[in-house]
Amino acid sequence: MSQVLGKPQPEDEDDDEEEDELVGLADYGDGPDSSDADPDSGAEEGESRKRPFIFPRSVKCCWCTAHKCRSPDLWNTSRACGVPRGWWYLFREGQSPIFFLDFSDPFSTEVKPRILLMGLRRSGKSSIQKVVFHKMSPNETLFLESTNKICREDVSNSSFVNFQIWDFPGQIDFFDPTFDYEMIFRGTGALIFVIDSQDDYMEALARLHLTVTRAYKVNTDINFEVFIHKVDGLSDDHKIETQRDIHQRANDDLADAGLEKIHLSFYLTSIYDHSIFEAFSKVVQKLIPQLPTLENLLNIFISNSGIEKAFLFDVVSKIYIATDSTPVDMQTYELCCDMIDVVIDISCIYGLKEDGAGTPYDKESTAIIKLNNTTVLYLKEVTKFLALVCFVREESFERKGLIDYNFHCFRKAIHEVFEVRMKVVKSRKAQNRLQKKKGATPNGTPRVLL
Amino acid sequence: MPNTAMKKKVLLMGKSGSGKTSMRSIIFANYIARDTRRLGATIDVEHSHVRFLGNLVLNLWDCGGQDTFMENYFTSQRDNIFRNVEVLIYVFDVESRELEKDMHYYQSCLEAILQNSPDAKIFCLVHKMDLVQEDQRDLIFKEREEDLRRLSRPLECACFRTSIWDETLYKAWSSIVYQLIPNVQQLEMNLRNFAQIIEADEVLLFERATFLVISHYQCREQRDVHRFEKISNIIKQFKLSCSKLAASFQSMEVRNSNFAAFIDIFTSNTYVMVVMSDPSIPSAATLINIRNARKHFEKLERVDGPKHSLLMR
Ligand SMILES: Nc1nc2c(ncn2[C@@H]2O[C@H](COP(=O)(O)OP(=O)(O)OP(=O)(O)O)[C@@H](O)[C@H]2O)c(=O)[nH]1
Ligand SMILES: Nc1nc2c(ncn2[C@@H]2O[C@H](COP(=O)(O)OP(=O)(O)O)[C@@H](O)[C@H]2O)c(=O)[nH]1
Ligand SMILES: [Mg+2]
Ligand SMILES: [Mg+2]
């Protein structure tokens, strides 16, 4: 009677060794001790204290002190100066340096979508990055300094989300001839422009216009995403009015310049609630080429398992990568986020080895939460970075065996989807090294399901 | 059992704005930290009764801290306020600029306690620690603690550092209510037996409404010494998120390759958390064990319940 998803494949487990590399990222952090490894990184350690096992690395680029890695007008990997893989910087004489985070492998940057986070000073960019990717609690962002301290922030390299966030300290001067903004925009998948809605936003709108038009000239494929931010301070009416006004003005400006083909998307966001995660989820989803496949898999999975709603989450950022096609209700999404928090928090306390080694989230990670209204929340590990979170009625959950079996197939299918992507990356790497590597041929195709 | 209820008077004092009402609202009234920004100053004394563990009623006296009220407490209301006090909680704002005045009020308070309720237990909370730079916190707290101890003599006081923005709040309040639970030794002994029988690494008992840890037993050393208050905080937050969906949290199972933890409703006044590390013990077995122990602990909670300890199988 029970339909199942896909067919169990006779593949063996050591497949998983490859899957660990699935998204081509570095490992989870080094363990709990390294969070304390940097004695003088001061108050910014705050959030790593709370989740020491996910974000153990504290990065301090010696550019600030020793200038060892100085190399004008060149993009550099910062590894040379002892900063962990993933940091790149551009140094220009007399200007603040630009640092950016690259979660991916340097060899494969051109295949990774890149997200830029831009906006006026104090608009909330660093706060967004801290809250979404570093689990800082919103009230702690009050202590963030607006100086150019980007090079001292902690790195998260444990997210599925395979993109880069560029936080530009200060303003960029597009007319500065030595500044190669073309190079920056060329590889960009989405440009998030943050506008402080509690402030006068005329200057921000002018800046938005300039940035968008420049970027569009270089790369017409960029998604332009406007975050109307800090809306926690506004009443509901005021929110709608502000969004309408900003929307109108921004599009008028574009129309005046004859650029109405540029499409801007608007989001109302605040770090004090889940709206920022929701907005980020949408931005990221647009950049995931496998999205239709993932949604399809989720639809098949839930309809065969008696599940009401399922989300595929990036565990670290709580961005949902995909969900089935039933409508998303904000409260449901929020509860999923909170569940992930609980699961990771408890696993950090009890789920590490005695010496603190291991990771809180691993292959066996599972959680079941029962509510009094016959709802069951079910979380399971899918990949190192992804978790499936489902809403199930209690009576359907009685057939947990079926759900688990279908999940097994679902998980395999997801791995295959990403394996294709991995193989592409791998072969590129292999070419780069002028080396042939056995088994790395990019000939995989997504498996058609049922 | 309202007539068998045991009432205990708890005084909350400290200067205005030090955070008394905020703490009480978070622990006993399901506020989240951010909501406390909307609280106004407390006028005179606000009384609240909190049923705790069924037969224990905490009678909280939240004493507004503005000068005029304070003066009043020590003069015209003196007997009324300081009589029959079981616990005095004195809250100090760590950022206060009037340290001397704070200490002066504190000493007046101790004097009144010594006269009217000499057996009262005294807790000093050095509060709003989040406002102090992290590397300074230990130092500042040590200093304050020393001063307070000295000033309290001949009375003894227990000092805690607290902030509504992290789990330290739960640590302080757990320790406070622990002092008030009538049959706590018996509870602990039974919890130990239970833990050993089911081969748990650790068992925690939470009060159901506040999620404060009221008893625990560990069979195996655990790394994190702050885990009790962290878990109180984590689960309490989650409970509040569930209530947004008009649902309430019932039970939870979390595992990875190193552990399995079960949190479940236990008696009518408690939740239990059982932590296992032996992967060969299936979830179902642990869940049945928890269910079987329920009845026994239910009996223990009643004041005149049987005084024998847990014997299973
Ligand atoms: N930063 C920080 N602020 C806090 C903390 N606890 C309370 N507050 C804030 O302090 C302010 C005053 O808190 P209340 O709880 O009203 O103070 P109170 O002691 O009841 O004052 P009275 O009723 O006048 O005696 C509120 O805005 C709280 O949000 C804390 O731990 N850290
Ligand atoms: N009310 C409110 N304040 C915010 C929000 N996001 C950021 N802020 C505050 O805005 C200020 C500037 O933020 P910051 O991230 O340093 O801005 P940046 O210069 O764009 O990096 C900080 O004090 C933040 O606490 C929000 O969603 N709501
Ligand atoms: Mg910034
Ligand atoms: Mg008050």
TrEMBL record, chain A:
Keywords: Cytoplasm, GTP-binding, Hydrolase, Lysosome, Membrane, Nucleotide-binding, Nucleus
One GO BP: negative regulation of autophagy
GO molecular function: GDP binding; GTP binding; GTPase activity; GTPase binding; molecular adaptor activity; protein heterodimerization activity
Domain of life: Eukaryota
Localization of this protein: Cytoplasm; Lysosome; Lysosome membrane; Nucleus
Record Gene3D superfamilies: 3.30.450.190, P-loop containing nucleotide triphosphate hydrolases
Gene Ontology terms: cellular component: centrosome; cytosol; Gtr1-Gtr2 GTPase complex; lysosomal membrane; nucleoplasm
InterPro entries in UniProt: Gtr1_RagA (IPR006762), P-loop_NTPase (IPR027417), RagC/D (IPR039400)
Presence of keyword Hydrolase: yes
Region (Disordered), start-end ranges: 1-49
Function: Guanine nucleotide-binding protein that plays a crucial role in the cellular response to amino acid availability through regulation of the mTORC1 signaling cascade.
UniProt similarity note: Belongs to the GTR/RAG GTP-binding protein family.
The protein's name: Ras-related GTP-binding protein
Originating organism: Loxodonta africana (African elephant)
Taxon lineage: Eukaryota, Metazoa, Chordata, Craniata, Vertebrata
Gene: RRAGD
TrEMBL record, chain B:
Cellular compartment(s): Cytoplasm; Lysosome; Lysosome membrane
CDD domains: RagA_like
Catalyzed reactions: GTP + H2O = GDP + phosphate + H(+)
GO biological process: autophagosome assembly; cellular response to amino acid starvation; cellular response to methionine; cytoplasmic translation; glucose homeostasis; negative regulation of autophagy; negative regulation of translational initiation; positive regulation of TORC1 signaling
Keywords: Cytoplasm, GTP-binding, Hydrolase, Isopeptide bond, Lysosome, Membrane, Nucleotide-binding, Ubl conjugation
Main location: cytoplasm
Keyword Disulfide bond attached: no
GO CC annotation: FNIP-folliculin RagC/D GAP; GATOR1 complex; Gtr1-Gtr2 GTPase complex; lysosomal membrane; nucleoplasm
Protein family (similarity comment): Belongs to the GTR/RAG GTP-binding protein family.
Function of the molecule: Guanine nucleotide-binding protein that plays a crucial role in the cellular response to amino acid availability through regulation of the mTORC1 signaling cascade.
UniProt name for this protein: Ras-related GTP-binding protein
Lineage: Eukaryota, Metazoa, Chordata, Craniata, Vertebrata
